[in-house]
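Pasting two entries for a bug report.
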Amino acid sequence: MTTEAATRRMPGAPCWVSLLAHSLPVTQEFYGALFGWEFRPGPQHFGPYSRAFLDGREVAGVGELAPDRHLPVSWTTYLASDDADVTAEQIRSCGGTVGVGPLDADDDTGRMAIASDPQGAIFGVWQGRSMMGTAFTGEPGTAVWNELVTPDTAAVGPFYEHVFGFEAEPLSADDSAGFDYLTLHLKDHPVAGIHGVGSALPRDRGSHWMTYFAVSDTDAAMRRVTELGGHVLDGARDSAHGRLSTVSDSEGAVFTLIQQR
């Protein structure tokens, strides 16, 4: 296990990402071709579900929505917890909502809940038992960063600090230049971010957690996304952390590609 993967096991840290899609075979084909993932059956408590593996190690989950649930598909970030029931109570007491659970996964890998913050952004809570979360990260095809996109960091920053124990660090005055961003730390390790985008927040999505997947070549990965039936939503751009592009898969689930520096 890499040090970065171990850090993601800390209570509060993003530890897993999961996607509920309309067609499991179509989704598996897309991500298998894009990231080289292989799939094995996982817990079936919400319907068909598979875990994605890269080089034999778990990296993500993909499930299938019931046919009568016509919901937009999206990636869900799961935050680690030592006790999902206690975390659920903290979420409620701090103004969030618990929509599902807490409940046990049917293969006893852990206990989970699905919740939303006071601005409506959905996230998961995972209390790992035999499966603690993503087996490794930092390599192409793995999730390397999770970021909450919301109108205003001040409106939700305290919620995540109180519930999960994050220490929120704003950008310095020299770096911010009107850029509303908080980096969330646990034991001095940066584990996630909150990006306040104001009126630029997509109306059809609202506040949401964004998953960043590493790739070896952002431009090549963008072309592959379109070849596989996905869409490029935000063309390649360079940042201090690498070359980025926001894309959607063949069913519309949005995520960000990053070629890390």
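Entry 2 (this is the one that rendered wrong in the viewer):
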Amino acid sequence: MTAEEVAEELMVSQSKISRLENGRRSISQRDVRDLCRTYKVEDKALVDSLMQMAKESRQQGWWNAFGDVPYSVYIGFETDAASLRVYEPQVLPGLLQTPEYAEAVISGALPEAPQDQIAQRVQVRLRRQERITDPLSPLRLWAVVDEAAMRRVVGNSKIMSDQLDYLVRMSHEPHVTVQALPFDMGSHPGMSGQFTILEFSDESDTSVVYLEGVTSDLYLEKLSDVQSYSMMYEHLRAQALNADQSRQFITEVAQEHARRHEEGAAGAAGEADAAD
């Protein structure tokens, strides 16, 4: 196959294929996977070996130090991404979670996981968040969050209040935008579930749509798929509250959680006094 034929098959630029073949560009696991598929490499052990070499050759592979991370392919994409567009219907965005909220989310999602595995996942999530605070090249994050994710009591009301206050603080960062999608907005294009659109600074790298699954994840790279999800996201952004309205909305929900926590604490104190 010529470089032109390979580029057409993968829907990338011919220059990208040329740079990969001439060693002028580092190769990602995704590149290896796609090239193996194009070249009809059917030996899974060989493909896995090549992908592992590609993973180890990239300096950004900090997650290797945490052992076997199930979603390491996604972390690789996220590490290379210039921007993320995220829709979250059930939980608050992982890159904007407090340690307490992250631990409560992961514990609830993996009820049978040992404590050391939960602690490892929390550490990985907090390490991922460094992209948001990177002073040289911060990740551009746009998040549309359903009201359900803000109302659901993960951990306890104190954790939720602190988490939502943190979400508001982070939304003031110039490269972070958070929009709330209240229940009152009715049906919307995101009702089928969570998704993330990753975009890269290199124009030859196609955008990727990430769909998280229980036992496996899905990565969509076809232009038509990316365009469909991008259009869905535009509709979500249009239906959601704007940035200022969202901060006010999230603050009000945070205050409700704080009141519940205070009421619960007062009730517990009253019961203790009665017992005495």
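Dev reply: Rendering is fixed now. As a check, the viewer should reflect this: The chain has a mean pLDDT of 89.
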